[in-house]
Amino acid sequence: MYEYIKGEITYISTEYIVSDHNGLGYKIFMPNPIVMSSKQGETVQVFTYQHVREDQLTLFGFPSMEEKLLFTKLLNVSGIGPKGALAILASGAPEQVIQAIEEENETLLVKFPGVGKKTARQIILDLKGKLQDVVPDYFPNLFTDPAKEKGLDDTALDEAVMALQALGYSEREVKKIRPVLQKESLTTDQYIKKGLQLMLKLK
Question: What is the pTM of this model?
Fold first, then answer.
């Protein structure tokens, strides 16, 4: 029903954001809401998917149409519901998920929450070769070596570090994971996701 909602981000939690559109606050569940922390108070367009059940109506949101498309394709896999698809996107960058599917990498897929060997095989069976409309423009370097594509521009990493500190992680904790993050060439959002994964391992 809703293709997207454009409104002011008035609240951000670990699971969802609230977007105010014409005085209505929409509760929108996202893979990693905290990546929107720098945009709180701003008007942002969020691409949405409305999930309707007999006793529940839920909005899921994504920063890009491509992530929304990947989410909807994951929903077509037997055994994966909206929360499962959201958990997969929250745990790995979309291009990682797509690459694992295209390369039939079950080892990587089973690392995502709620994905066992049977589900991993089903994901590959249902989606391999069917993600062309997600890949081309959004992930142009999907199958290239990140080491060869590094542009030595640390802006995205610096922004991610500041976001992690804003979330309550200490400078010492962030310093521990920064060398690992520097080995990759990612966007700010991807650095934040990777940083959160590494922080969990430090606990």
Answer: 0.66
Q: Which of 46, 31, 18, 16 is nearest to 197 (CA)?
A: 31
Q: Which domains does the chain have, with CATH numbers?
A: 4-62 (2.40.50.140), 65-127 (1.10.150.20), 146-202 (no CATH)
> Residue ranges of the chain with pLDDT lower than 70?
135-153, 202-203
Contacts of residues 120-126 at CB distance under 8 Å and 24 or more positions apart, as own/partner, are: 122/77, 122/78, 122/79, 123/74, 123/77, 123/80, 126/76, 126/77, 126/78
Per-residue pLDDT of 28-62, as tens digits, reads 999 989 888 888 999 999 999 999 887 889 999 99
* CA dist 69 → 21, 101, 160 (Å): 23, 15, 25
